[in-house]
Design brief:
two-stranded antiparallel sheet, 13 helices, DNA polymerase, domain 1, 52% helix, 3-stranded antiparallel β-sheet, mainly alpha
């Protein structure tokens, strides 16, 4: 299967300089509005890049027409171009449609004095059905345990500790870099010693600052304490005094790791796995392991701080057979314990 073209390919926006001043002006005003309502820099960047894709198409294939004057059939042509010519996934088409609808809402509600007759025509178009397609392989917890053993043998102690924390928590890259040494001490143990609860960290959410939450890191999904201890010992040998659990050597000292550091760890992990490794996919692995261990969906939802319980099913990689086997295994254990 060939590599899927994404809406962020540089070639799609090479003609941005040729886009009309009127359309660029709309984009600039919309971006200023997004800043004023505290949208995160990442969200604003994504909106801007997707709008560039549309307006560059509009310049090439629709005579640089002013956005306010567009007809429904012209937008339909654009979405057809994405789906049929570029082979863009339904999810990405939905994302672009949403951004164009947001721009239209902005014009209709905020710029109504300039364009009193404008109406959002994007929202009346037939929506594209989203599909949940996993393009990247989902690791099993056994694969992660095997990789941890290989990393230990190679004395890659910090990488192993990071992988163990990811597997025990399902954290994002931007979250795991916020872990501190103090998050893995006895006074942070919760739930009968089954897990650690971190200090509050910033995570993905609405607004520039995101949400402030704690994270739960389970000790038994993988031998977490073992790999943390190996890394602690190595830190002592290296004289690392940083409060941050994961560090990078920069400008003569050890400093808090960043997402680029975790990406480097991911490449190392991939080398030992023998396949590409994507830290975000460990969320699927952890969610699946917790469900198989008998944790109810609402508990898994709370652990991951998901607002929608449907996210548990999306991240779970359990087949119906596995789910049934897990249930009846636990039922048999309970009955055997009663007989004893």
């Amino acid at each position: 299967m060939g590599k899927r073209t994404t809406v962020y390919n540089a070639g799609l926006t090479d003609n941005w300089d040729s886009v009309s001043k009127e359309n660029k002006g709309l984009v600039d005003e919309f971006v200023e509005y997004l800043v004023s309502v505290n949208k995160s820099p990442q969200t604003i960047h994504q909106y801007h890049e997707q709008l560039k894709v549309f307006f560059c198409w509009n310049e090439k294939h629709n005579q640089n027409k002013f956005f306010v004057d567009l007809k429904k059939r012209e937008l339909i042509k654009f979405f057809g171009y994405l789906s049929n010519d570029l082979k863009v996934s339904p999810n990405r088409v939905c994302s672009l449609r949403s951004v164009l609808s947001s721009l239209s809402n902005f014009i209709e509600r905020i710029m109504d004095e300039d364009y009193p007759t404008f109406r959002n025509i994007v929202k009346v178009l037939e929506p594209v059905t989203k599909t949940f397609v996993r393009e990247r392989p989902i690791l099993t917890m056994d694969q992660i345990r095997e990789c941890l053993v290989k990393l230990e043998e190679a004395k890659k102690y910090q990488v192993a500790a990071c992988l163990a924390v990811l597997a025990g928590s399902g954290m994002r890259k931007s979250e795991v870099v916020q872990m501190k040494m103090s998050d893995f001490t006895e006074d942070r143990l919760v739930y009968g010693g089954r897990a650690y609860e971190s200090e509050k960290i910033r995570t993905k959410g609405r607004g520039k600052e995101g949400k402030v939450v704690t994270r739960i890191i389970f000790r038994t999904l993988v031998p977490l304490d073992h790999y943390i201890e190996l890394w602690k010992q190595k830190r002592e040998e290296l004289g690392i005094k940083s409060e941050w659990m994961f560090v990078a050597y920069h400008d003569g000292s050890y400093q808090q790791a960043n997402v680029a550091t975790i990406n480097s760890f991911a490449r190392t992990i991939g080398n030992y796995l023998g396949e590409d490794f994507f830290p975000h996919n460990v969320r699927h692995t952890t969610s699946t392991a917790l469900e198989l261990a008998g944790y109810p969906i609402d508990v898994v939802q709370s652990i991951f701080r998901w607002a929608d319980p449907k996210m548990v099913k999306y991240y779970s990689n359990i087949s119906e057979t596995e789910s049934l086997n897990s249930f009846f295994d636990k039922l048999n254990e309970k009955e055997e314990n009663k007989e004893e």
